[in-house]
Amino acid sequence: MASPNINPTVRRRRLGQELRRLRETKGLTAEGVAERLLVSQSKISRLENGRRSISPRDVRDLCNVYEVEDPRVVESLMQMAKDSRQQGWWHAFGDIPYSVYIGLETDAESLRVYEPQVVPGLLQTTEYAEAVISGALPESTPEEWRKRVGVRLRRKERITTAAVPLRLWAVIDESVLRREVGDRHLMLAQLEHLQELSKLPHVTIQVLPFSAGAHTGLSGHYAILEFPETTDSSVVYIEGVTSDLYLEKTADVQKYTVMYEHLRAKAMSAEDSMEYIADIAKQHYAK
């Protein structure tokens, strides 16, 4: 059953961080803990980075190894393990390959994204999303397309109807605006939608024009997520075809943050970007 108040992805991350802290406090290595529990080192690593579901029994065993004597601490950690095994709202849509990302985005306070190919998912119209998903997944069934569109529209509520909206900053390449997804009418509606969303106080959209030349985003799409809890480290998300990459080390996050600042500096201002989008809409799609 999905819980509206519990985010299992975030619970796993916080629990993993606490377990890592307990291990390091005792001066133990992940390899040493794995040997004592007769499990693989990769299992300990996956538990600590929040990428694997953890059972209350796992928590109990780890607490024994770490000599956690306060029963209230053990009980609190075991409760986090139980919460982390609940289902988020996205599980109602079935098996979603990027469910870890959705869980992070759902709990994030801010999101900075660079997109060189298509309009970022949170800024897409329904029709544009349908065209993008069906075009990107030609071998999938219409039912799978509809499922993904439904998830995308639900995610969009973070910027359109949430009581505490997500702070979104998007830098999009000019090619995004000129790639005709669907037909001209669909693209015109999508560009007008970008202009409308840009009026929201928590949404900033900048266009990176072709004239910017070489830039720090040439390696492709990425996103930086930040969270309201200071104990939750920022995450860099890089989407892949068969698997995704999540970077949480301070040095990695800092590297991508600096890259993003260079992108923002090379992009048009938010005001000029909206004028540019309006011009492209008028010249290429309003016919």
From TrEMBL:
<protein>
    <submittedName>
        <fullName>Transcriptional regulator</fullName>
    </submittedName>
</protein>
<feature type="domain" description="HTH cro/C1-type">
    <location>
        <begin position="19"/>
        <end position="74"/>
    </location>
</feature>
<dbReference type="InterPro" id="IPR010982">
    <property type="entry name" value="Lambda_DNA-bd_dom_sf"/>
</dbReference>
<dbReference type="Pfam" id="PF19054">
    <property type="entry name" value="DUF5753"/>
</dbReference>
<dbReference type="InterPro" id="IPR043917">
    <property type="entry name" value="DUF5753"/>
</dbReference>
<dbReference type="GO" id="GO:0003677">
    <property type="term" value="F:DNA binding"/>
</dbReference>
<dbReference type="Pfam" id="PF13560">
    <property type="entry name" value="HTH_31"/>
</dbReference>
<dbReference type="InterPro" id="IPR001387">
    <property type="entry name" value="Cro/C1-type_HTH"/>
</dbReference>
